[in-house]
Amino acid sequence: MPRTKSRSNTGRASRSSARAPKYVYAFANGRAEGSSAMRDLLGGKGCELAEMTKMGVPVPPGFTISTEAWAAYNAAGKKYPAGLWEQVMAHLSRLQTAAGTRLGDATRPLLVSVRSGARVSMPGMMDTVLNLGLNDQTVLGLAQRTRNERFAWDCYRRFITLFGDVVLSIDRRAFDTLLDAAKQRTGAKTDADLPADALKGLVAEFKGVVQEKVGRAFPQDPQEQLRLAINAVFDSWWARKAVDYRRIHRLPDDWGTAVTVMAMVFGNLGPTSGTGVCFSRDPSSGERRFFGEFLVNAQGEDVVAGIRTGEHLDALKTRMPAVYRKLNAIKDRLELHYRDMQDIEFTVQDGKLFILQTRSGKRTAAAAVRIAVEMSTKEKRIGRDTALLRVEPASLHQLLVKTVDPQAKYTAIASGLPATPAAAVGKVVFDPEKAVEMALRQEAVILVRPETSPEDVAGMHAAQGVLTSRGGLTSHAAVVARGWGKCCVVGAGDVVVEEENHLFRAGRAVVREGQVITLNGATGEVIVGAQPLVDPKLSDEFRELLGWAHERATTRVRANADTPADAAKAREFGAVGIGLVRTEHMFFGDERIPIVREMIMAGDVQARKKAVDKLLPFQREDFIGIFRAMAPHPVTIRLLDPPLHEFLPKYKEVLEEYTRLDARGFNPERHAELGAVKARLEALLEANPMLGHRGCRLGITFPEIYDMQVRAIMEAACEVVGEGHRVEPEIMIPLTGTVAEMKLTREMTDRVAQQVIAETGKGVHYSVGTMIEVPRAALVADRIAQYAEFFSFGTNDLTQMTFGYSRDDIGKFLPFYLEKKLLPNDPFAVLDQAGVGELVRIGIERGRKTVSGLKVGICGEHGGEPASVEFCHRVGMTYVSCSPYMVPVAWLAAAQAEIKQPRSPGGVQPKASRANMKRSHMSRTNRRTKQ
Ligand code: ADP
Ligand code: MG
Ligand code: MG
Question: Is 47 among the residues known to form the active site?
Fold first, then answer.
């Protein structure tokens, strides 16, 4: 590279960058223009490289091109904004000075890596090019200078592979096939065993591949290489896998990636070199112990991609004790500095240690909880609020997952490394796309791959568990699955995948696609067939953290529970009440369903009343059990809601049997019975049962049903009060849409309740309220509140009726809508804050206009979804209610919501809440800056 060229570039840069915004930030020799606080601008990788440089951690010099440059490049239709290239050239020349060599120098070439980095880590989703700057000339210079021919050609073949893959979009397998062939030819076990000649030969073959696939020679000009690589890294933001990852993690598309260009250091120089990844604590258990993997004579991507399984860090300790000690000290410093568990990439070049990346380590939920609690209590490094904010609420779900029953006796066919503790049972699939398809059909699948790559994330996400035959605990599969808390076993060396034959072998066992296996995530074992799974046990740290969440949250958490057993489970997980008992679930028991059917078949009021009275003792027993389990907390019981046909046999089946008997003419009794059922079903037939004769409409037209239920509730309450418990029944009317409905059902309820109280002479405090699930009810909530003592937002029906999407049919178009981004997510899983949420907000506001401090909750599926819980907190709900297993998730989400946006006592948002939010946000950023 002629010197003059880069000079003239530099000259131009200084003139035009006077006007252009600053796009490039340098780090070198203890000084840096960036810092941790500039994460959004420089990406996680870039900002921490700058921060570490300033801390005096050994980091090779380089510079980072900002996400603003990315945004400008994108806005201009993938063209560099004015001044960008000049700034890059100016920084390149500074880097050359710092490194004491130049890109393209024929005798002492500088090589660089070009790395992607978004503000949040998206492991392996975007691209990085290593060893850039090599060409047919510089490779000779490198060989000569290092007196290591093998090394130089190893770098060159790696460079062509990565550049070919990332920049020229050549399928990597084209190169890997040739590499494997070369290994076979030379009898090399690993890449590191390939001799120089073989590597030289490979480079020639690789260049041939490039010529053939893209119709041009491999670019020899290092500046052109650099420019192409920067473009490719910019564009890798839009790679399918990255887009998928963002969709799954709900990350915005407009953040973009920064690009870091930095001097290469070489782990592949020989036996005193190597590369590795380490964690300052165990990312699986959270235990405070140094943990990691090391590969001797290798470059970084080998570990990350799981191409070779690394050795334990102890190997580094024995091979290079001084390096190990230094690394150990740096990891302590970094952890102390960031006050969080760090995931660190390092490379040893000829006995000298370099740090190439640090970030908060991905961890299992168990580890997150343990680390947060220990850092707060034992180590006093972070406050409780920080500890609470450190754990992602949804991830707690992992701690509530089942594991393989320790009593189970089985023989494993293979075993690998346990990457996450969850167990999974499912059908074997090899193709990630097929995994997605089967999961959509509600089938549990286990994705089995030789190793995973970022293209596979959608399939991994859809699967119950992931099994790979290659790769270590820091391989792609392990890191990604750990982030989700998904069951994952990696590096099961005995598992030989024969994808084309749709089977895998493990020793003498052959497992075919579709066969059920169990993965024991705790041990890494692979077992044929379905093993029994058991419920989780809560750790002490987990209980401690939940205790803090209870103290901090102002929005309470209840559970939806229909049986005494569910109620007990809910309490164990910390529920302070039941937000929804669905009485109809009690109708399906073996002894009961015939009586329910008798009630529905009844021709007149008398007959119906007789059947209804038979149900009373059953309902009373259930309520007694639930009240006992939940005392002294409130229990909300919803009166009968679904359309009656749901309790009868399926019309199609009845019709079939009836027609059969009709034709044959025997069993006249059954024939008559079926005829009656058939007639009743025909009478009950509705075009839109979800909008039909259900909810309070049913209770109003068949008052004896609601009368019986209210009686059962009140008799049960009186009985349990008599035992000395505190009981607070909240009787809930479903599907109210008009004030008149509320007024009438309230009067009906009061009449029966008062009767029971008079009969038993027990003082029971009860209340009557309604579900708000018809949009109209939210709009007339001020008037409904004249008769309702509480509201509970039934956001399943409310979502259904607000969007006009049938919950049972949404599967036909939802996947398409999600893919095309017509919807950000499934509105039945994540509350639609803009539409449905607005109705909720209006309903609360209007209801509280009539009764200030009106008790308000939510009982839809959304009650356990963290973003929705935060919303419920913001609009001033008294409580959220969710399934028992989600209760801890909701508590943590509610506590975080309170920390982020404090609420004054009494549940109504203070006027100053926005100012508060700003302040707490600021103090958080300040804290981060100071670290
Ligand atoms: P990812 O985000 O996929 O981890 P990275 O940009 O971190 O991508 O790079 C991939 C691998 O290459 C990592 O192991 C990293 O340590 C290594 N690497 C990146 N830059 C350099 C460099 N300048 N010298 C040596 N190894 C590098
Ligand atoms: Mg990395
Ligand atoms: Mg409903």
Answer: no
Catalytic residue among 278, 718, 859, 882: 859
> In percent, how much of the chain has pLDDT > 70?
94
Which string of b and e fits 331-354 if b means at least 16 CB within 10 Å? bebbbebbbbbbbbbbbbbeeebb
Locate all alpha helices (DSSP H) within 780-912, ordered by sequence. Answer: 781-784, 795-803, 814-819, 836-850, 866-874, 887-900
Are the C-beta atoms of 48 and 120 separated by less than 8 Å? no
Higher per-residue pLDDT: 610 or 302: 610
Question: From atom 10 of ligand 1, which residue's Cα is the shortest distance away?
Answer: 301
Dump pLDDT digits (tens) for 370-385. 999 999 999 999 999 9
The residues that bridge with 295 in the sheet, in sequence order, are: 275
Q: Phi first, then psi: give them for residue 908, nearest 5 degrees.
A: -95, 140
With b for 16 or more beta-carbon neighbours within 10 A and e for fewer, the 533-542 pattern comes to: beebeebebb
Structure-model confidence comparison of residues 246 and 95, the more confident one? 95
CB 794 within 8 A of CB 772: yes
Q: Cα of 164 to ligand 2 centre, how many Å?
A: 20
Q: Which ligand is nearest to the CA of 43?
A: 1
| Other CB atoms within 10 A of residue 810 CB | 18
- pTM here is 0.78
User: Can you read off the two tokens belonging to residue 872?
Assistant: 């419920």
Instruction: Point out which residues pair with 567 in neighbouring strands.
Output: none
Determine which residue's CA is closest to atom 8 belonging to ligand 1.
128
User: How many Å lie between the centroid of ligand 3 and the Cα of residue 535?
Assistant: 29
Cβ neighbours of residue 440 closer than 8 Å, sequence gap 6 or more:
462, 811, 815
273 lines ligand 1 (CB under 6 A): no
CA 40 to chain centre: 21
Q: What's the pLDDT band for 819 if we cut at 50, 70, 90?
A: confident
Active site (annotated) includes residue 696 = no
Confidence (pLDDT) at 839: 98
Contact 143, 295 (CB under 8 A): no
